[in-house]
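Dissemination and training. As part of the outreach component of the grant, students in the summer workshop were shown how a complex can be specified as a set of sequence lines and then modelled as a single object. The example used during the hands-on session is reproduced here so that future cohorts can follow it. Participants entered these lines:
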Amino acid sequence: MLLHSDGRVELTLPEVPLATNTVVCGGTDPQSLTTDVLRQPIIEIQFASAADGRGYSVARHLRVTLRYAGTLTASGSMLPDQLAYLYKAGFDQVVVDETLLLKHSAEDWLAAHKRCCHDRPYGTQSYSEAAVSGRASVWQQRVSG
Amino acid sequence: MYQYDKLDQALVDARTREFRDQVNRRLAGTLTEEEFKPLRLMNGLYLQLHAYMLRVAIPYGVMSSRQMHQLAFIADKYDRGYGHFTTRQNIQFNWPQLVETPDILDDLATVQMHAIQTSGNCIRNVTTDPFAGVAADESVDPRAVCELLRQWSTGMPEFSYLPRKFKFALTGATADRAAIKFHDIGLQLKRGADGQTLTDIWVGGGQGRTPRIAQLLKQNIAVEDLLPYLDAVMRVYNLYGNRDNKYKARIKILVASLGLDVFAAKVEAEFTRADRSRFDGVTDTLARIESRITVPDYKLSANADEASQSLASKRAADPAFDAWVKTNVFEHIQQGYRIAVISLKPVGGIPGDASSDQMRLVARLAETFSSAEIRVTHRQNLVLPHVALQHLHELWMQLCGAGLAESNVDLPSDIIACPGLDYCALAKARSIPVAQQLSSQLRGREANNNLTGLSINISGCINACGHHHVASVGILGLEKKGVETYQITLGGRNNLDASVGEVLGPGFSADEVPQAVNQLVDTWVQRREAQESFSDTYDRVGKQVFAEAVYAAP
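and obtained this result:
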């Protein structure tokens, strides 16, 4: 299935456009990315393991340093408990494929997705990062009163 | 100290609920231990030799009496009636049941406490000068910046799955009481010409199996640039740090392998190019934090001279009280006040351990004498930071009744020791019995000799949690052919003149360590000039003099 940071769920993985995604390994040096890559509508960042956090920094580098405005997709090895972190780091969607569904059921993934997108607050808040679904960071909330 | 608002509390409450759900899934078997491990570690829960261990955060070592009372309550309800204060200004409970840990976190949350990011490959609890805000030699109070860093790093997605753990330490004083040069990042706060706060950033320090002294990465960073710059440092580390070998994964190895210049250039490139809009208003955030740090209502004594004279006469009348004031009481920024350090190093005791009764007493004494505030030091002692001169004697008398009045702060018997093989799954040798034996042996000598300037730190394995590298006399527990062996290092310093101790020579059995340490102290006393520290004498006379004294002995 495909989980979206705006709360939407696609129970079946769409074959297109996923098949045409530009795939970047979590371990890629983002400074090596070409302007060609930045023109792609979707960039998919693959996590080699749930404990390897390089993909977060690749995503952040794409967003805040290279100003990439397209869709960021996370795939590879992840845990349901990491969904909130992925969304907060700037990923728009997360690919939950057959391999991930063998480790954690669709119910587990959907429950985690619901927690971070709909049940506020539930481990989705941080001070400097905007929460999912456009919710303000704690620091922004304080400024806005 | 910093007071939570409802958003701080909501964040901690949410994290507690999340952890309860994770524990339930682990108990139900839907989370494997492999999957649960990074999740529990980021909530401070370890699996040790005999039981789970919960490390509770005491952010930058500052807590209230109410919080200390709650720690005592937790020690009694969920543990065995005691806790262990650590070198990173936290407290560890050694015997919690997994199923009860969510309840412990709930109880902590009621007093604005948690165990968030006290472990795991993330940014850990920020540490600082235990005298922050009250030290006579301080130019910038680092607590607001500590709190800013705590907030920034809490639940920060990008830096929660780093190559390895990451530790910040801060100081704003002339004397470094936070060992900033032995942290992944050390921040030195100072005043600029116009009175503004500036920060020097040191990077790549650390202990463990590859001790390194931090190098100066950037000078004079303005407050508004601090988080964007640290964000860039962390991103460079997260992207380029080694992930194949955990022993080469700390930032010190990345800085050493790239070279400081290349590392700094990568950071600078990220810093100058990155969109900083996330950090808009950070100076307002800092000002808001400052406004939520409570300041004690210092009352000037009606007659300050009278209080001083009364203190002097009590000191003259009671040598034991005088000794305690000399070693455990420090200058305060406020006239008529002192900083009192409560030693958790009684003769023959376990360094850093406190019983629930002792915790409750310290909490009550802080309420009575120190504006209900307590600090934890990286030497595993406690501090009452705001004691009026006229209360020192009464405070001391009450501490005496609870075995908390040992007059040995910064003396050799003020030993740092990790939990070692008595508790820790990583340890190769016991630390605690060695510390107990040494403190009994050294305490007697301290009465007759001025032994200020000699520190002893003990680690039960090469991971160096007992900070052996940075002690005058470091003791490292190893295992050789199934036997606990102790290697001695000499000449370490953890202040701004940082140095890493050198190995003296072949190791010793546990029984031989006290004799060896005695000979080292003898040699120092004989060769010492004026009030020289052990490490200064060591640098001047050289290793050979000490080695001959120790290894030539029958």
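Residues 46 and 79 of chain A are 13 Å apart (CA to CA). Students were then asked to discuss how this feature might be tested experimentally.
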